[in-house]
Specification:
Blueprint: H1 12-17, E1 26-32, E2 37-40, E3 46-53, E4 56-60, E5 66-68, E6 73-77, E7 82-85, E8 94-96, E9 102-104, E10 129-136, H2 144-149, E11 153-156, H3 167-173, H4 180-200, H5 209-212, H6 219-228, H7 236-243, H8 247-258, H9 262-278, H10 285-292, H11 297-308, H12 312-322
Helix pairs in contact: 6-7, 9-10, 10-11
Length: 324
């Protein structure tokens, strides 16, 4: 049986999404009618918008407007502003700020965000639009390869991939009970993964370079070695020898297909695994460092803070607050 680090089932999409976790997810429900437009300036590296009823248009900054129909899911990538409106030409009258704060387009008066309400699921009027948006604040750091693989706006139509949001989900995430925040976090994770799986495997989609990396004769074996044994003291020459490739060829092809050099990929993987292990009660920093391949607790702590902006102890404290 695989242990916590035994991630031997590493299809390309699993590899791409591995390590992505959110903390402090924010959901906002909007019931809209007439002429309306909202400009999102939350800066979230990943955000989702799900149209539950009616129709709308979504326009990424510098991009063309795209129509959303019932059940469609939009994934916004990169943190750039975007507008969701009843029509492409409608000027925004509301602004969504960082942390989900909502203000009028003119002025700074705070407007209370509308949290999801299960009772409105089936009661939206025939001419109204019901929109659910989720801001994705990723506490483990959004992998650069994932952001590089996504366009600023990816729309998954309802007939391509079903969004795992239902009245039952609404009822659960609206309950003010212990564990609500972690339920919000994991719901948003599930929505994102489901949407991205549908996006990358949709009919007519061209396999991106990172997907082809797993079947490459040099890069594929190297990836499997780094994924199954990340704690090994890998060096580029040792990895190249095990993968049966020259050091220069492996470095060049790995960077071209995966989007980052082998040792950078290994460092990010180790830190993602460390973040998962730090969630376990009683796990010491020395034990975690040993299990993911850092020489000592100090080196892990320094690398963790550079990557995530918080120390392992601060991360552990923040994670504990969201547990039921």
């Amino acid at each position: 049986m695989d242990g916590p680090l035994g991630l031997t089932s590493t299809d390309p999409l699993t590899d791409l999404l591995n390590g992505v976790r959110t903390s402090g997810a924010i959901f906002n429900q909007s019931s809209l009618s007439g002429s309306w437009a909202m400009r999102f300036e939350d800066g979230s590296p990943l955000a989702l918008a799900v149209l539950l009823h009616g129709s709308a248009w979504i326009t990424p900054q510098g991009g063309a407007p795209v129509r959303l129909g019932p059940g469609d899911v939009a994934v916004l990538c990169g943190g750039a502003p975007y507008v969701i409106a009843n029509a492409p030409a409608t000027e925004p009258d509301m602004m969504i700020r960082p942390d989900g704060r909502c203000t009028p387009a003119q002025g700074e008066e705070l407007v209370d965000a509308q949290v999801p309400d299960a009772g409105t699921w089936d009661t939206a009027g025939a001419d109204s639009t019901l929109l659910l948006s989720g801001l994705y604040t990723v506490d483990c750091g959004t992998p650069g390869r994932l952001l590089a693989a996504l366009p600023p706006l990816a729309v998954i139509e309802a007939n391509v991939g079903a969004c795992p949001v239902s009245p039952t989900t609404f009822e659960e995430i609206t309950r003010e009970e212990p564990g609500q925040q972690i339920l919000l976090d994991r719901t948003l994770d599930l929505m994102l993964i489901t949407a991205l799986r549908a996006w990358f495997t949709r009919p007519g989609a061209q396999a991106p370079t990172w997907y082809r990396a797993h079947s490459d004769p040099a890069v594929g074996p190297a990836l499997r070695l780094l994924q199954t044994n990340p704690a090994h003291p890998w060096t580029l020459p040792a990895l190249a020898a095990e993968a049966g490739a020259s050091r220069a060829n492996l470095a060049r092809r790995f960077t071209a297909l995966v989007g980052q050099p082998p040792m950078t990929y290994l460092r990010e993987r180790r830190l993602a695994l460390a973040a998962d292990l730090l969630r376990a009660p009683g796990a010491t920093l020395t034990e975690v460092a040993d299990r993911v391949g850092f020489s000592n607790a100090f080196s892990l702590s320094a690398a963790f803070k550079r990557e995530h902006g918080v120390s392992p102890s601060e991360y552990r404290t923040d994670t504990a607050r969201t547990k039921p």
